[in-house]
Write a structure and sequence with these properties.
Elements lengths: L2 H34 L4 E7 L7 E7 L4 E6 L8 E2 L4 H13 L19 E8 L2 E7 L5 H29 L4 H13 L10 H9 L5 H17 L2
Antiparallel strand pairs: 1-2, 1-5, 2-3, 3-4, 5-6
Helix pairs in contact: 2-3, 3-4, 4-6, 5-6
């Protein structure tokens, strides 16, 4: 092999190694950038055996998507998407930020208290994961966040119960609606306007009892007047 051929061979080998290094570096950089660009997710989970429901899990991303999984513990997981307003998404992440994304957070009271269900707040963004588990807390910010998630879960249970009655048990519709109205009166629902499509459908359908239709119409009117 001539001297010039040897030089060309080493030059090609060096170029190939440099190109490979550049590819690896680019892939690493892209992966790092992708991880930092991933959406953040706040998860609320509550496990309360021998209650109904025994399991509640609600996830909200900072992009505005959300899912819920509400069931008994012996049932299969079945997370379902649901709509959540931008204002409520922002509120969830503002409260989470005030709680330092649950990093090294201790919320539980350190004294004997009744079992109120094991609750978990979890923050995830790329490889960053923090969570806190508690039974009962006196932290005002944590309780604001808890009220939002508990309210979303309660509203979903009430709504599904009402929709199930409308489909399978017309005589039970008014009883289901009484529970919805009671929870609304107690200000448990963070986004009661999500009830409006079902209430409007019920109010307009003559196959349901007049008392249920009138109650649905009245509740829908109250919701609209309080959110205008």
């Amino acid at each position: 092999m001539s001297f010039s051929s040897s030089i060309r061979r080493h030059f090609r080998l060096g170029f190939a190694i440099s190109a490979l290094a550049a590819i690896i570096f680019s892939a690493f950089f892209a992966a790092s950038a992708g991880a930092s660009g991933e959406p953040a997710t706040v998860t609320f989970r509550k496990v309360f055996k021998q209650s109904f429901p025994e399991f509640v899990e609600i996830k909200v991303t900072d992009l505005g998507s959300a899912t819920y999984d509400i069931r008994q513990l012996d049932e299969q997981p079945s997370p379902q998407p649901f709509e959540i307003t931008r204002a409520l998404v922002d509120k969830v992440f503002q409260l989470t930020a005030k709680l330092h994304d649950f990093d090294s957070l201790n919320l539980d009271v350190h004294r004997r208290i009744a079992d109120l269900g094991q609750k978990t707040f979890r923050y995830e963004k790329g490889n960053e994961v923090h969570e806190v588990v508690f039974n009962y807390t006196l932290d005002a910010t944590a309780n604001q966040l808890l009220d939002i998630f508990e309210g979303l879960g309660r509203m979903q249970v009430d709504l599904e119960n009402l929709q199930r009655s409308m489909k399978y048990d017309r005589l039970g519709v008014n009883d289901a609606l009484v529970r919805v109205e009671s929870d609304y009166n107690n200000k448990l629902f963070p986004e009661p306007e999500r009830l409006l499509p079902t209430l409007d459908q019920l109010a307009a359908d003559e196959k349901y009892l007049d008392i249920a239709r009138q109650r649905a119409r009245s509740l829908a009117s109250r919701i609209r007047s309080s959110h205008t």
